[in-house]
Amino acid sequence: QVQLVESGGGLVQAGGSLRLSCAASGRSFSAYVMGWFRQAPGKEREFVSAISRSGVGTYYTDSVKGRFTVSRDNARNTVYLQMNSLQPEDTAVYYCAADSTITPWAAGSRAAGSYDYWGQGTQVTVSS
């Protein structure tokens, strides 16, 4: 099992940046594909990005390509989401997720139901 704790959310003006962190505890962090999802009020949870076990492979939803960068440090059991050029539509609770069975980047890689472990979420609010 793995426990996930996100941090780094906050309030930022449009065009600003934030870096989210997700610290994992438990065994074998490098065995997990890590994902980032977000959920805005009244909307379903949506895929944002994922990173392969080694960190070499990354995957983004179209709306964040070129603005967000996912990375991981397996020595620190941490995954990051650098978010630049933030827009009001990026406002949401951001969650990190982990799964040991996902095949990058099969269709299930962006499905919330494919991930077994979730953090509690961190709020990101972008003002216009």
Q: In short, what is this structure?
A:
The chain is globular and about 40 Å long.
Walkthrough of the structure:
With 128 residues, the chain is mostly beta strands. It is built from no helices and eleven strands. The chain has strands at 2-7, 10-13, 18-26, 33-39, 46-51, 58-60, 68-73, 78-83, 92-99, 117-118, 122-127. The model has no long low-confidence stretch (mean pLDDT 96).
Question: What is the rounded distance between the termini?
Answer: 40 Å
Helix content: under 10%
Count of DSSP E strands? 11
Shape: globular
Element string (H = helix, E = strand): EEEEEEEEEEE
Rg:
13 Å
For the sheet with most strands, the description reads: 7 strands, mixed
Count of helical segments? Answer: 0
Name the beta content range.
over 45%
Q: State the low-pLDDT regions, or none.
A: none
Mean pLDDT: 96
Structural class: mainly beta
Note the main attributes of this structure.
128 residues; mainly beta; seven-stranded mixed sheet; four-stranded antiparallel sheet; 11 strands
What's the layout of helices and strands?
Blueprint: E1 2-7, E2 10-13, E3 18-26, E4 33-39, E5 46-51, E6 58-60, E7 68-73, E8 78-83, E9 92-99, E10 117-118, E11 122-127
Parallel strand pairs: 2-11
Antiparallel strand pairs: 1-3, 3-8, 4-5, 4-9, 5-6, 7-8, 9-10, 9-11
